[in-house]
Write a structure and sequence with these properties.
- The protein is an alpha/beta fold.
- The protein folds into 3 domains: 87 residues, no CATH class; 77 residues, Resuscitation-promoting factor rpfb (Resuscitation-promoting factor rpfb fold, Single Sheet), CATH 2.20.230; 93 residues, no CATH class.
- 24% of the residues lie in helices and 27% in strands.
- It has 6 helices and 12 strands.
- Strand 10 and strand 11 form a beta hairpin.
């Protein structure tokens, strides 16, 4: 084997492996594992087999002897006249640890169409709850500085539950301004007492306009429905007042009670009326 071949083998071996010893020291390279641990005569250096050993650091100190496999421990020193650049096994300060990390999985927002909710409005139906993922990493540090992090496993231990948000699709037409002293004005004031303002008032205004045009003396000749809310039969409104036939306030009050008990809100009643054919609530 020539000097160049010996040097090349040593260089390749050093580039492919890496070992950390307790302190820096000169080492002698042996091509075969059979020489591992054998002392080279009076040199006092120990043979380190590179094959399959992790971690050789290359340094630049004094030359070391390259030993071939054909020699025994006694004759190696005389045969290994050629030298190669030094290869130093040094303390790299490298260590590997395993780290387990818990990571929250944030809920997503899921939207759904709500036909009873006015267009342009949204409502949170349910609030989600975060999930949890446990990840395990292999972490390599050199002199206390992290140089590599490898994900080994990731397990979802709790699935997140998502936010559910309704998006309204109910069309609520805009109505003209309320004329003071009119049945609409009375209705708006009573609705405010029930807490139904804004969009809820608009739904109520549209509903009673479609049912009776806010006329308190109107009767449906075919069904017998009567008054502003078109109660069927009209005598139901007597539960609010004996003047149910002539008093718009009595009729409106009865109508709001009916809406609250059956649909919850004027917009709920307006949605039912809108999507039914023929229309009714």
């Amino acid at each position: 084997m020539t000097w160049e071949e010996s040097a090349t083998r040593a260089r390749v071996a050093s580039e492919r492996t890496r070992i950390a010893l307790g302190r820096a020291r000169d080492v002698v390279l042996a091509e075969y594992r059979s020489l591992a641990g054998r002392q080279l005569g009076t040199r006092g250096a120990w043979v380190v087999a590179l094959s399959g050993v992790a971690g050789i650091a290359v340094g630049a100190l004094s030359s070391v002897v390259y030993a071939s496999d054909s020699a025994d421990a006694a004759s190696t020193e005389s045969q290994a006249a050629m030298t190669i650049p030094p290869i130093i096994a040094a303390d790299t300060g490298a260590s590997t640890t395993f780290e387990t990390v818990s990571t929250p999985l944030e809920p997503e927002s899921i939207t759904q169409t709500d036909t009873s909710l006015p267009m342009g409005y949204t409502k949170v139906v349910s609030t989600g709850d975060p999930g949890e993922q446990i990840a395990t990493y292999s972490v390599t540090t050199v002199d206390g500085v992290e140089v590599r992090r490898e994900l080994l496993s990731a397990v979802v231990v709790k699935e997140p539950t998502h936010d559910v948000v309704s998006i309204g699709s109910l069309v609520v037409p805009t109505r003209p301004a309320v004329v003071p002293g009119s049945n609409r004005d009375i209705g708006k004031q009573i609705a405010e007492q029930w807490g139904w303002t804004g969009i809820e008032w608009q739904c109520l205004d549209n509903l009673f306009e479609r049912e009776s045009n806010w006329r308190h003396l109107i009767a449906n000749p075919s069904s017998g429905a009567y008054g502003i809310p078109q109660a069927l039969p009209g005598s139901k409104m007597a539960s609010v007042g004996s003047d149910w036939k002539t008093n718009p306030a009595t009729q409106i009050t009865w109508g709001l009670g009916y809406i609250k008990g059956r649909y919850g809100t004027p917009c709920g009643a307006w949605a039912a009326w809108t999507y039914r054919s023929p229309h009714w609530y």
